[in-house]
Amino acid sequence: MTGNDSGPTGAGTRAGTDASARELVEELLNEGNGVLRLGPAFVARDLVPPGRRLGLPEQAYDLGERGFVCERWLGSTTRADNRIGPPDEGLGQVVDRDGRARVTLRDAVRGAPAAVLGVEYAASHPHGLGRLAKLLDYGARIPYHIHPPQRFAELVGRRSKDEAYYFPAGVEPGPHPETFFGVHPWIVRERAYEVLLPYLVDWDSDLILRHARADLQVPDDGFSVPSGVLHAPGTALTVELQEDSDVFAMFQALNAGRIISKELLYKDVRPADRQAHGERFPLGFVEWELNGDPYFYENNHLPPRPVEPDDAGESGREWWIFYNTPKFSGKKLVVPPGRTHLSTERGVYSILVWSGSGRYCGHDVRGGDADRDELLVAHDTATAPHPVENTGDDDLVVFKFFGPDVNHDAPALPQITST
What we know:
Blueprint: H1 18-31, E1 35-39, E2 41-45, E3 68-74, E4 93-95, E5 101-104, H2 105-111, H3 113-117, H4 119-124, E6 131-136, E7 145-146, H5 150-153, E8 163-167, E9 178-181, H6 185-189, H7 197-202, E10 213-216, E11 221-225, E12 231-232, E13 238-243, E14 249-250, E15 254-255, E16 258-259, H8 271-277, H9 280-283, H10 288-291, H11 296-300, E17 305-306, E18 317-322, E19 329-335, E20 340-343, E21 349-355, E22 357-360, E23 363-366, E24 374-377, H12 379-382, E25 386-390, E26 396-402
Antiparallel strand pairs: 1-4, 1-24, 2-3, 3-6, 4-5, 6-13, 7-14, 8-11, 8-13, 9-10, 9-12, 15-16, 17-18, 18-19, 19-26, 20-25, 21-24, 21-26, 22-23, 22-25
């Protein structure tokens, strides 16, 4: 199951019906000035060791059979599709003023869509927030893998997973701060698509990476990764924004000193397709022209773009850090000490306070404090001027996450073609 499916949530006092969920959410929004405070959602993975940069006690990263805490999901309505784990793993929890979990964010959006999303947006976007933000914290490179395009994801009742990365500055980058993307252009030019097939069949090495290209993970920089593009993300701490799905197919057998289960190659493949086509079926997930694009860097590199290029920014400055797609978008806001910035957005969004301290729509927030660094700003509050006050001695740095079709003014990269 993914977060798109129904299922138990394990929330502290989960609302049992849509009516009770709506009443609870409306009560919490009234108490919070149109803002929901969120508790942290830490997620375990059993493929790669942790980077141990999420601010947890050292012993909290090792979860035994479940693996290690390597990710934190932010403002999430998506369930982590793990082999072992609690039924609400990955789901954000809405907490009250005392810090008690009252309802999962998924159930809050389902129970009171108009109150959270706005009437028009809720009517036109039945999947809710439609995006998933994460912190990725890995101590080794994530194996070379792919997210099936929509035409394949829908075969197993899922949705595609376009994603994008931003690498915050000032964080130790780990041993391999580079990401492999796509394949060498000659493979596409010569239609040598089956050059990857022996690695999937033999399933005994990491040499499939010889056919990919690597780019450095530069601080305060980023990339977009469409569905259908092979990639192996490096060890820099990463803020990721993506479609709300957890689909993938693993293409690399050996990683971080051990052989990965080959079942992960077929994780989102129908049994009948696996039986009929074997390793060739997930190989069909590859969008070859995108993977072999000789201008892949230029067409997918996401440097920060000022939201208001001519704004002197005395009360605060904003940059686009996730853009180039209608499926999601994101900004970085920096408010100097002693300043108050008025934000006005086009729709519902969630935040992560990265560093500094202050008040966000009246809520005390602190970077680095997992109980005080996440909020969801509902539509009515988001679309009216709302204050972001820096009460500390350092810059207040906030990341904002938006779902599909919210920011029609987000930048688009000019696409370079080889023809």
